Structure formats: structure tokens, C-alpha cells
Amino acid sequence: MSDQKKRNPEDGGGSVDPEAASDESLQEVHASLMRKREEKSEGFPIMPIMIVFFFSALMLVGGIYMANFGGRFDPMVFDETKGPLAAPDEEDPEELDVVALGSRVYQQNCQACHQADGQGVPGAFPPLVETEWVTGSEERLVRVVLHGLQGPIEVRGEEYSGVMAPFGHLSDQNVAAVLTYIRQEWGNDASEVSEETVAEIRREVGSRGAWTAEELEPYTD
Amino acid sequence: MSDSSSNPDYTKQGAAASGAIDRSMRAPVVLFAAAGVFWLLVGTLLALITSFKLHTPGFLGNWEWLTYGRVRPAYTTVFLYGWATNAGLAVGFWIMARLSRNVLQRGTILNTAAVFWNVGVLVGVAGIFFGDLTAREWLEMPGYAAPILMFAYVLIALWVVLTFQYRNSKYTYVSQWYLLAALFWFPAIFGTAQLMAVYAPARGVLQEVVGWWFAHNLYALWLTPIGLASVYYLLPKILGKPVHSYYLTSVAFWSYLVFAGWAGMHYLAGGPVPAWIISAGVTGALLVLFPVFIIGINHHRAMAGSFGMLRTSPALRFTYFAAVAFTTVSVVAAIAAFRGVKEIVHFTYFTDGLMQWGVYAWFTMAMFGALYYLLPRVLQRAWPSPTLISLHFWTSAAGIGLYVFAMCVGGWIQGLQMNNPEAYPEFVDITRNTLPWLVMASLGGLLLFVAHVAFAIHCLWLLLRPETAENRSMLTAEPKTMKVAAK
User: Fold this and answer.
1) Per-residue pLDDT tens over the stretch B390-438
2) Domain boundaries of chain B, sorted by first residue
3) Number of independent structural domains in chain A
4) pLDDT at B63
5) How far is B350 from B263, CA to CA, in rounded Å?
6) CB contact under 8 A, A14 and B386
7) What's the domain range around A134?
8) Which of A211, B85, B96, B450 has its CA 20 to 30 A from that of B282?
9) What contacts B162, CB < 8 A, 6 or more positions away?
10) Closest Cα in chain B to A15
11) Residues A111, A200: one domain?
């Protein structure tokens, strides 16, 4: 790593370092060197020219580097090879595809009982297609999903008597999306359910157990 | 002290004064140096444990205090704040007192500061072992240690500034500029980092920017100026000839202060930080080469023709080793800052190797050189054993050489392998391939341990050795007057 490795003193060198210059003369000599050079006008000193060239070369390389990769000092440039990112509020947030979200929530939470085609299982799980329970009152539908439903109900002329689990743990957005999905899928053609509606009903009802068909009577419109 | 300008015979006056200054500086310099050597030994032990854990993860891993996550920060803290800062201050005080031609006044300030600084380090390291550490590189000490350190620091800075202000010399010298610059930089970087990264952490990536600005500048604007002050002082003192092209030093001084502060930002490459900050860091690291070039001319051309002196002067041997390391590490660091090279070396052991190249091969070796020069003068007795000095030098040089070689080469290979997932689909293979290099680094660490034990024993021996008339006459012999550049 350095020149010392070339020489290997057998005795380990001396142990007293010389003090070959007093502090005064150190400062005197250097101060005079500093003055002398500043006054120098004759001749053509090679060292300052080399220093100037070296400095210019470094500045040139540094300048080119900053021009190429400095992102024009734009705080929104994060990748030096690309342009600036748009500020978040300038760009339209990506449109939420409610149907896609609803479809995913349905597959994860509902499909096991109500089946992929929404027809349910005759005698066990009621269908979601062509029934007032789904395409009718939002008020009733939201309540069923948030808190569950138990006891006998009649759907498309058939009697069911099971238990539907509550899905209150889903977010308002997810509940709204899945309800919109089932109200518009499989030939159903009812209005969307908004997130606000779900939030309002959730707040209004608070926490409670599963509904029965009679309890839901007031909410059929 | 008489005004030097009223006495044309500076040499005689200086010789008498320098002995008086050395004697007066004994208490604070020995306090700081002894604390530094103590922390050096502690730090070396912790460093060895850290190094062993890299290739033998189970080593001492059953006790939470000695897990890697605590030992490594404890080691860097002990090394930087315990050893490097204590040694740097001891050297800095002495050079400042010598060049300001001031006998120690208000020594209590320094002795109090020594106690508080080291209590602060002790509290900080204990806090790290207790698990109170912060997650900031080189700033792991818990927040409650900082006020103690800051208090000690204010006393230290006050004393140095007063000493400089009331100097008895007609001219100043470059070493004094670097020391004063370092003294003003330290509270700026340490205070800002404590405030913005520990006490009231800045939000988002700004915190990261502050963190790396601090970590780089603790090396570049605190340790390095002290090291430069020492090399600039000792080279002409020992060689008896002036620094080459001295008229360029002020250009180097100012350009170094301007550019070095930027250079730390390149560590954030690849992070979610605005690109210009990283590019400015790369450019800063490149432009630092300008002052480094001038400083290199100053040091290496002053040395030219005097290599024989390396045989007889232990202080020169360490100091010149450090000067060579400073030039080389600055060039390598500038190259490694570029994004194209960063792609290979980022997040590998190379970074660690480069860090030790700077903090040990450069700064620590410079401090060893300075301590070898000043301790006999301050204590008025010669080093008892040339063999121990020799042992210290060669084990240090070989140890740090081996360590830096292993970490840099091993890290480079590690980086190439990580960039080649086709050939190395299993990450664990790459990790396994670094093992021989890590073992080699540990061997280097063992050599450094031997070096530091030798140094500590020698320091203790020197301290306990009686002050003899023979030694005193040798050390207080009148220094010669330097001739203006031998033509």
C-alpha cells in the first residue's frame, strides 16, 4: 500500500523523532513561500497551469455529469435517466373499477355458498338472480350483508331456513362494490350501492346479531 | 510570552518555548491520549467480535448484549468517538498550542472536557448495549448521551479558539486552518444530525439525507482535517524542509471544505431520493480530487528524496503511510461514487473496506504517527522500545492492508455475483462465497489487535518510565531553523 514496505529496518528504527525545524521557522518559511509566489511575475511556472487544467477537466466532467444525470434539479426526478414524475394531485387518480373489485370480493367471500353463477344451491343457499332481495331495497340488502340473516325466508317461491354469516368486517368500499356487482351481474339490472350508503347504515345500526326476515320488513322499500 | 516580532532570533526563543509548551500540555494531552488508547483496545475487541460474527454467526450469539446488532454499533461508536476523537483532540490541542506559541492556560477547561467527553462516550456505549441505540449509522448513541458530549465539546472548542485568538506567533500555518475548520464543522454536523435524525426526526427521505450527510462528514470534515493538520505539521518538522508548493494550500483548503461536504450524498444511490441530490454527491466526490491532488503534491513532493528518513523516524513512517492512504482512498472513493461502479459495489463488503481504508489506514495511522511524535515531548522521556514501535507499525500496516484488500476484493466479487442471477440463482451461494474473504479480514483484525496491544503496552511503559536527564536533553535539543527551500 505504501513505500514503507520497501525498507525493513533490522533494528526497528530509532525511537526519537528529529525536530528538524522550530515552530517559528516553520511558520516563517511557509509564510514567505506564500508571499513570494504571489508576487512572482516572471517566467512561466508549469505547476499552476497543470493545476488549472486539472481543475478545468474535473469541472467539465462534473458539469457534464450534472447535465446528464442532475435531473435539472427537479425534486420530482427520481430516476436520473427519465423525466420528472407528475405530482400526485396533477394526475387523475386511476378510476376504481367497481365491478372488478366487487367480483373479487364476491369470489373470496360469497361464491362458496351462492355459487359463481349466483344461482345458489337449491334447498340450502338462496339464489341472487332475479330476486327482490338483491335487486330491491338497498337498505335491506346492506343490512343482510353487514349483520347476517337467520331463520326462514322465501326467495323466488322457495323456502330457505339457514344462516347467513355477517360480513361486517369488510370495508364500506368492499361491501358497496360487492353489492353493486351482484345487483348488476347475471342479468340483474339495479342501481349501484354507494360507499356512503353502507357507511351510513353501518353507523345507524351499530353492532347487533343476525337479522330475521320479519325484522327486515320495515326496510323493504 | 514575549512578542515574537520584537525578538529577531526566533529559533532560540522557539526552542525554549516549545519545551515549556510541551510540559504545560502534559495533563490534558495525556488524559485525552490515554482515554483514546483505552477506547482503542475496547474498540478492537468489539471489532474482532463483529468480524468473527460475519463468518461464524453463532459466535457469542447467545447473550443479547453481544449480538451483532449491538456489538457492531458499539464498536463503531467506541472507535469513532472514543479512539479517533480523543486521539484527534490530543493531537489537535498540542499542535494548536505549539503553533500559537502558547503555554497552557486554563488547563482545567480541557481536563473537565476530557472527563465529560469520555463519560459521554461511556454512557453512549452502555446505552447501545442496553438496547437504546438509534438506527442511524455512526450516530447509534442514544439521544441522552449527546448533551454530555456537546457540553464537553463546547469547552474544547472554547479553549482552542481562545488559544488561537491569543496566539504569540506572527504567522499562521495550514495546520491551524484545518484544526479550526474541523472545530467549527463538528458541532454543525453533530448538532444538525442529533436534531434532525434523533431528537425531532425529519420526515421521509430527508432523514436519510441528513443521516448520510452526517456519516460522511464525520469522516470528511471532522477526522480528515485533523489528520491533515497533523501530516502538514509533522512532515516539515521531521524532514526539516518546507511543504512543496505551499502557496497552493489555501486553494486546497477552501476547495476541500466546499466540495467534501457534498460527497456523502452518493451513498443514497438507488434510494427514493431526488436524482439531483445523488448526482451532486457524485460530482462532489469527483471534485474533491482537486484538493486531494494539491495536498498530494504538498505531501509527496516534500517527501521526495527523504525516504531514508523513514528508517529512523517512527512518527514519519506512520505519518507517511497515512498520507499515501489519504491520496489512494480519495481516488478510489471518487471512482466508487459513480453510479456505474455503485451498481457493483453498493451494499457489498466493498463499502466496509473503503470505510476502514479512510478511517484506519488514513486517519488512525496519522494519529499513531502524531502520538509517537508528541508523547515523548509532552512527557519528556523517550520511547523505551524501538522493537515495540516496529512491531506496532508492521502489524498495523499488514493488518489493515489485509483487511482492506479482503473486503474490497471480496466485496467487488460479491457485487459481480449479485448482478448475475443466471449464474448465481441462489443468494445463499453468494453469501457462502464471501466466507474466505471474511476470514481473511478477521486475520487482518487479529494483526491489528496485536498492534494495538503492543501500542498500549508501550504507552503504559512510557508513562511509568522515569523522566531522565538524558532523555530530556535529547528531546529538548534546540530545533534547527528551517532554510527557505533548498535550491
Assistant:
1) 999 999 999 999 999 999 999 999 999 999 999 999 999 999 999 999 9
2) 16-469
3) 2
4) 87
5) 17
6) yes
7) 98-219
8) B85
9) B105, B106
10) B386
11) yes
A20 closest CB neighbour out of B98, B328, B480: B480
Q: Which three cell numbers stand for residue A214?
A: 320479519
Residue A19 lies in a domain: no
> The domain B16-469: what is its CATH number?
1.20.210.10
Give the global pTM: 0.78
Contacts A10 to B, Cβ<8 Å: none
What is the residue whose three cell numbers read 474473504? B437
Q: Is residue A61 part of a domain?
A: yes
Q: Does B11 have pLDDT greater than 70?
A: no
Shared domain for A73 and A174, answered yes or no, is: no
Same domain, A108 and A214: yes
Judged by DSSP in three states, A150 sits in strand
- Residue A208's pLDDT band (cuts 50, 70, 90): confident
Percent of chain A with pLDDT over 70: 84
Look at A13 and B389 and tell me if their CB atoms are within 8 Å: yes
- Residue partners of A216: CB distance under 8 A and separation at least 6: A140, A143, A144, A149
Quickly state the pLDDT bin for A88 (edges 50, 70, 90): low
Nearest CA in chain A to B369: A17
Nearest to A47 among B245, B289, B311 (CB): B245
Check if B474 contacts A (Cβ < 8 Å). Answer: yes
The answer to whether residues A150 and A188 belong to one domain is yes
Burial of B58 (C-beta count, 10 Å sphere; 0-12/13-18/19+): exposed
Contact A87, B293 (CB under 8 A): no
Verify whether the Cβ–Cβ distance B272 to A78 is below 8 Å.
Answer: yes
Whether A146 and A208 share a structural domain: yes
Q: Do B482 and A21 touch (CB under 8 A)?
A: yes
ipTM, interface predicted TM-score of the complex: 0.83
| CATH, residue A176 | 1.10.760.10
Q: Which residue has the cell 528531546?
A: B475
Residue A167 lies in a domain: yes
User: CB-CB: which of A5, A19, A70 is closest to B276?
Assistant: A70
Residue A180 shares a structural domain with residue A198: yes
Whether residue A75 is found in the same domain as residue A117: no
Average pLDDT (B133-162) is 92
- B residues 87..116 contacting A (CB < 8 A): 98-99, 101
Q: Which amino acid is at B339?
A: R
Q: If you count residue pairs, one on A and one on B, with CB atoms under 8 Å apart, how many are there?
A: 229
pLDDT above 60: residue A186: yes
Listed residues A88, A119, A140: the one ending a domain = A88
A108 and A207 both lie in a single domain = yes
Task: Give the residues across from A159 on adjacent strands.
Answer: A154
- B44-54 burial code (b ≥16 CB/10 A, e <16): bebbbbbbbbb
Identify all chain A residues contacting B397, using CB atoms and an 8 Å cutoff.
1-2, 4-5
pLDDT at A85: 77
The pLDDT of residue B24 is above 60: yes
